[in-house]
Write a structure and sequence with these properties.
Low-confidence stretches: 15-27, 718-749
Helix content: under 10%
Mean pLDDT: 78
Distance between the termini: 46 Å
Strand content: over 45%
Structural class: mainly beta
Number of strands: 45
Length: 749
C-alpha cells in the first residue's frame, strides 16, 4: 500500500478513537496522538511512536504512553518530556501521571523552570502540593561552563532531598553542599530559598560577607550576617549584625538597621548604626557610638511637600569610619534639615520654603559650639511679568540663627528680615542684546552677643537699604570661511551701587562661600547670600569665542572704587581684578581648562585641567587642580592635586574593572584611591574592592579596606553600584550563540 495512503488511514483512526470513545473526551478533555493507538486486554489505551497527550495547555511526549482507564492514570514506562501550562519542562522515565496531567512519581527527573533554573535528581514524587526530589541538584544558572570534560553551571546546590512547594513557591533543601565551578565550597544542613517561580519577597538570612581592614601593620576582619524582613509590600527592613575582630583589639559588635518604606506621594528611608560595649566589662554604657541617617519626603497635596534629611553621630568621624565610601564622610559638617515647601501649580514663579536646620561638625579640630542652629528659616519667592516686557520678582526671607559660642565673624544670635526686589528688562536691537538688571534690598538685622574684641561688630538692631543697578550688552560677530564658523561675542557689564553696605558690622551667616570665578563675575552681588553685599562700582568686560568644537571665554573687572568687600576677602585690594578664563573642546572627547591669573603680581593663581574621554575600553576622567598664593613676592602652592577615574566597558561577557583616586602632588601622597573588579552574570556575582582613604585629622590614620562580596541568585544578593547591571549593560550581554530555548536539555548538568 502506498505510504501516503497508509498515513492518511492512521490519522483517520486516531481521530476516530479520540472523538468516538468517551474515555478520551471527558469533562476534562484529554487528547491523544500517536503513530499507533491500540487496546490491551484490560482496555487500556496504548499509544506508540511519537505519542503525545494533551490536557488544557499541558503536554506529554514519549515513544510509549499507556492510559489506564480504570485507575485514571497515565503510565510512562520509557523516557518522556512534560510541559506544563507555565512553560516549565520536565524529563523523566518509568513513572506515572494522574489523568489531569498532574505528575505523581517517576525516575531520573530533569526539571527546567521557565526562568532557566534546573533541578535534577534520582527520584521524583509529588505529595499534595510538595514535589520531592531525592539526591537532587539545583542551580538557577542558565549558562554552563566546561571544566575538564564535565559541563557544569557556575554554581549549584546538591541536596539529600529537595522539596519544591508549588503552592507557596519555596525550595527546601536538606544536607546541601554548594559547588562553585564544580568545586565543593561549604556545607549547609538546611536551607530555604524562594522558588524561581516566586515573584514576592521573603524574609530570611542573606549571604554573610567578610571584609578585611588594614590599619598600618594591623589587620582586622569584619563579618556581617544580614537578615531581611519583608514586612509588607511597601515596607522592608535589613538588619545587619557585624562582628569586628583582630588588629590587636578586643572584638566589637556593630549593628546596622536599614529601613525603607514607600509612601503615597513619597518615601521614607533610615539607617541606624551603632557600636556596643558588650565586650568592655569596665564600661557601664551599653552604647559606644552611633549614627542615624534619615531621608523622608512626602507630597501633602498638590501644593505642599515635606522633606526631612538628617545625619547625626554621637562622636566626630564615626560616619567617616563606618561608611568610608558614603558622600557624608567627605562633608565638613553634618546637617539635619526639616523643610516644608510650597509650589503654586498655576504660577511657576511662586515658591515658599520653611526650614529648620541643625548642624554638627564632622572635623576633629573644629569646636561644635560654633556650629549654628537655624530655627527657623523662611523664604518666599514670587515673580510676575508686566505689559512693558519687564520680568520682575520679589523674595522675602527671615532667619533666626544662634550658636553656643561666638567667633570673630559670627555672633551668638542674629535675626534677619529681608526683602529683595529684582527687575530685569531685556531688549535685542540689530543683533545686540541689552539687559538692564536691578536689585533693591530692604533688610533689618538684630545681632546679639558678639565677640568683645571685635569692635566692628554692631550689636542691636540695624536697618539697611541697598540698591544695585546693572547694565549689560553683548554683540555676536560671525566669521565664516571654508574651514570653520567662528562666533566672537564681546561683553560689557556695568554695576552701580551706593558704595556703602556696612557688611563688616554684621554677622556673616549666609555669605561664607564666595569664589571669584567665571560663574559669578557678571552678577550684581557676587556673594552667595545677602548678609554681605558687593558694594563696588565696577565695569566687567569679556570676550566669548565659539566654533563647532571649541568654546572659550575670558573676563576681567575694573573697580571704580577700592572699597569692595568682595575683593578684599579674595586677597585683591587693587582696582583691577584677576583675569578669569575658560576653554572647552568637545568632540568625541571633552577637554576643559579654567584659569585665574593675577595681573598685578603676574602669576597664575589657579588653574584646572580636565579630560573626559570615552574610549573603546572604557571611560577615562582626569582633572588637575593647581592653587597658588603670593606673599612677599614668593609664590607658594596651596593645593596641587590630580583626580582620576576609569570605568571599563565589559572586557569579557560579564566583567568590569574600575579605579579612581586623588593624588596630592604637594604632599606627594595618594589621599584616596580605590580599585574594583566585578563579575555579574544571570545567577552569580563577585565584587572585589580595595579602598585606601587618608584623613585630614591627625588622630585618624589612613584606612585600607579590602572587601570581597559574592552574590548568588535566589539565595542572597549583595547590591552595589559595581555589581548592578543597568538596562544598557543587559543589552550588551553577548551569549555567543547560546540559546537557552534551543539547548539540549538532556546534556550533562
Amino acid at each position: 500500500m502506498n505510504s501516503k495512503i497508509y498515513s492518511i488511514i492512521i490519522k483517520i483512526l486516531i481521530y476516530f478513537f479520540i472523538f468516538i470513545f468517551p474515555s478520551y473526551n471527558s469533562a476534562e478533555e484529554i487528547l491523544i496522538y500517536a503513530d499507533s493507538i491500540t487496546y490491551d486486554e484490560e482496555k487500556n489505551i496504548i499509544a506508540k511512536g511519537n505519542a503525545k497527550i494533551f490536557h488544557e495547555n499541558k503536554l506529554i511526549i514519549s515513544d510509549l504512553i499507556i492510559y489506564n482507564r480504570s485507575e485514571e492514570k497515565i503510565l510512562l514506562p520509557s523516557k518522556f518530556t512534560f510541559k506544563d501550562n507555565n512553560n516549565n519542562f520536565i524529563e523523566g522515565e518509568n513513572g506515572y501521571f494522574h489523568n489531569n496531567l498532574n505528575f505523581s512519581k517517576f525516575d531520573n527527573p530533569k526539571i527546567k523552570l521557565n526562568d532557566g533554573s534546573r533541578i535534577i535528581g534520582n527520584k521524583f514524587k509529588r505529595d499534595g502540593h510538595i514535589d520531592i526530589i531525592s539526591k537532587g541538584v539545583y542551580s538557577p544558572c542558565k549558562s554552563r561552563i566546561k571544566i575538564a570534560n564535565f559541563i557544569c553551571p557556575t554554581w549549584q546546590l546538591e541536596g539529600e532531598k529537595i522539596l519544591h512547594d508549588n503552592k507557596n513557591l519555596f525550595l527546601y533543601q536538606k544536607h546541601s553542599k554548594m559547588r562553585v565551578l564544580n568545586t565543593p565550597v561549604f556545607y549547609i544542613p538546611y536551607i530555604v530559598t524562594p522558588s524561581p517561580l516566586r515573584k514576592e519577597r521573603k524574609s530570611g538570612f542573606l549571604l554573610p560577607s567578610i571584609a578585611l581592614n588594614f590599619f598600618d601593620t594591623k589587620t582586622s576582619q569584619s563579618t556581617s550576617f544580614p537578615y531581611y524582613f519583608n514586612i509588607s509590600m511597601d515596607k522592608e527592613l535589613l538588619f545587619t549584625p557585624i562582628i569586628n575582630y583582630g588588629g590587636g583589639v578586643d572584638s566589637s559588635q556593630r549593628f546596622v538597621f536599614d529601613y525603607n518604606q514607600i509612601l503615597s506621594g513619597g518615601n521614607f528611608k533610615t539607617d541606624l548604626t551603632f557600636d556596643s560595649n558588650f565586650e568592655n566589662q569596665n564600661n557601664n554604657k551599653w552604647l559606644s557610638d552611633a549614627s542615624l541617617i534619615t531621608n523622608f519626603n512626602k507630597n501633602i497635596n498638590n501644593t505642599y511637600r515635606i522633606q526631612i534629611d538628617s545625619a547625626l553621630q554621637t562622636s566626630k568621624n564615626y560616619i567617616q569610619i563606618t561608611k568610608p565610601n558614603d558622600d557624608l564622610s567627605y562633608q565638613t559638617s553634618l546637617s539635619t534639615n526639616l523643610n516644608l515647601e510650597g509650589y503654586n501649580i498655576n504660577k511657576i514663579d511662586d515658591y515658599l520654603k520653611l526650614s529648620l536646620n541643625f548642624y554638627q561638625t564632622n572635623q576633629e579640630n573644629e569646636d561644635n559650639k560654633i556650629i549654628p542652629t537655624v530655627l527657623p528659616k523662611i523664604k518666599y519667592f514670587t515673580g510676575y511679568n508686566n505689559k512693558f516686557g519687564n520680568v520682575s520678582n520679589s523674595s522675602y526671607e527671615f532667619y533666626n540663627i544662634f550658636r553656643d559660642k561666638s567667633t570673630t565673624v559670627h555672633a551668638k544670635k542674629q535675626q534677619k528680615i529681608s526683602h529683595n526686589y529684582n527687575l530685569r528688562r531685556e531688549a535685542i536691537n540689530y543683533n545686540s542684546k541689552i539687559l538692564f538688571d536691578a536689585s533693591i534690598y530692604n533688610q533689618v538685622f538684630n545681632t546679639e552677643k558678639k565677640m568683645i574684641d571685635n569692635s566692628n561688630f554692631k550689636t542691636g538692631s540695624y536697618y539697611r537699604l541697598f540698591p544695585i543697578f546693572g547694565l549689560s550688552t553683548e554683540t555676536p560677530f560671525k566669521i565664516k570661511n571654508y574651514s570653520t564658523n567662528l562666533t566672537i561675542t564681546p561683553k560689557i557689564n556695568i554695576i552701580l551701587t551706593p558704595g556703602i553696605s556696612n557688611s563688616n558690622k554684621l554677622s556673616n551667616e549666609d555669605s561664607t562661600n564666595n569664589d571669584f570665578s567665571i560663574n559669578n563675575i557678571y552678577r550684581l552681588n557676587r556673594y552667595s547670600g545677602s548678609d554681605k553685599m558687593d558694594n563696588s562700582k565696577r565695569i566687567t568686560y569679556g570676550l566669548d569665542a565659539q566654533t563647532q568644537y571649541l568654546t572659550s571665554s575670558i573676563s576681567q573687572t575694573y573697580e571704580f572704587t577700592s572699597n569692595s568687600n568682595f575683593h578684599k576677602e579674595q586677597g585683591n585690594d587693587n582696582k583691577l581684578s584677576d583675569l578669569i578664563g575658560s576653554l572647552k573642546y568637545l568632540n568625541k572627547n571633552e577637554l576643559t581648562y579654567n584659569f585665574r591669573y593675577d595681573v598685578d603680581d603676574s602669576y597664575l593663581k589657579q588653574q584646572n585641567v580636565g579630560l573626559n574621554s570615552k574610549t573603546n575600553i572604557g571611560d577615562v576622567n582626569i582633572s588637575y587642580l593647581d592653587k597658588n598664593t603670593e606673599t612677599n613676592d614668593i609664590v607658594t602652592k596651596d593645593v596641587e592635586t590630580i583626580n582620576y577615574s576609569f570605568l571599563s566597558k565589559k572586557f569579557s561577557k560579564f566583567s568590569k574593572l574600575n579605579f579612581n583616586g586623588l593624588y596630592d602632588l604637594k604632599k606627594e601622597i595618594n589621599k584616596e584611591y580605590s580599585i574594583g573588579y566585578s563579575y555579574f552574570d544571570e545567577c552569580f556575582g563577585i565584587n572585589i574592592d580595595f579602598n585606601r582613604k587618608s584623613y585630614e585629622e591627625d588622630n585618624l590614620k589612613p584606612q585600607d579596606i579590602l572587601t570581597l562580596m559574592f552574590s548568588f541568585k535566589n539565595i542572597g544578593s549583595y547590591k552595589s553600584t559595581n555589581l548592578a547591571v543597568s538596562e544598557n549593560d543587559k543589552q550588551d550581554i553577548n551569549w555567543e550563540g547560546y540559546n537557552i530555548d534551543n539547548d539540549k536539555f538532556e546534556d550533562n548538568y
